[in-house]
Amino acid sequence: MSGSALVLAGRGRYQDRWHDDAASAHLIAGALGAAGLRVRVRGTALHALSGPGGREDGQDGEPSLIVVVAGTGRVDPDWDGDDAAWAPFHARLAALVAGGVPLLAVHQAANTFTDAPGWARSTGGRWVPGVSMHPPIGPARFEAVPGEEHPVVAGLGPVEAFDERYCHLQVEPGSRVLLTTEHEGVAHPVVWQAPGPGRVLYDGLGHDARSYESASRRELLRREVAWLLSGDRDVPGSPTSPPPAGP
Fold first, then answer.
1. With DSSP H G I counted as helix, E B as strand and the rest as coil, what are the percentages for the chain, rounded to 5?
2. Candidate from 19-23, 132-136, 190-194, 237-241 with smallest mean pLDDT
3. Is the pLDDT of residue 2 over 90?
4. What SS3 state is found at 195?
5. Count of helices and strands (H, E) across the chain
6. Rounded to whole angstroms, what are the CA distances from 63 to 46, 53, 124, 167, 190?
7. What pLDDT shows up at residue 61?
8. Alpha-carbon gap, residue 155 to 147, rounded angstroms
9. Does residue 10 contact residue 112 with C-beta atoms inside 8 Å?
């Protein structure tokens, strides 16, 4: 692979107390670098998408890929600005994605940028407080939707990792579910392709560093990045996703 990647790690209002965003961003950045991408990691700050940090190193172009590893944290207008101050950041991110920069939203990103009304639509789903949940973290298994031929999962065996299993996420209509996890006899979507615009994947794995110790989890990440950078949106297989699991 070639090009550049910008990894946005949660800080301030987008860093929660349950996730080590810096550690996960570091591991993802390492995987992207090993794949041949030039990688920059930046915290979610007001100016993270402007200036040299939001562009390819030494060039005027946009990054080839954006990865978001952030959650919902401390909202303190006196420290990092109010919602109005953050509006340009969210508008810039939405414009980059709509303009063709691929996006990978990881794990807690289903519950970040709650002040940006379009974020859930961009990523194809979200965590719903009081509805979404996960069983205790531990050895977990994730499987491709039967018969799904999307390049991310075609020929991919079960993904097994020490991780959280997000359940009862609200999946947007038109999202293409690729991987699920079973809880109480129900298959819950955890990885999907968002409906667009743009090339966007949500990956619900990756609670902490232990997830990335799994070779099958790393292979899933490799496939996701390869597809996002391939430029393909029309892929073989059924365009109809299974319905999201109900609460």
1. 30, 25, 45
2. 237-241
3. no
4. coil
5. 5, 11
6. 18, 9, 21, 32, 26
7. 65
8. 10
9. yes
Residue 26: count of CB within 10 angstroms of its CB: 16
* Site of tokens 């939001």: 54
CATH code of the domain made up of 4-230:
3.40.50.880
pLDDT at 232: 65
Q: How do 200-203 and 103-106 pair as beta strands?
A: parallel
Which residue has 């109900």 as its token pair? Answer: 246
Cα 229 to Cα 34, 155, 174, 189, 233: the distances in Å are 15, 19, 21, 23, 11
The CA angle 3-179-150, to the nearest 5 degrees, is: 55
Cα(41)–Cα(54) distance, integer angstroms: 10
Terminal CA-CA length for the chain: 40
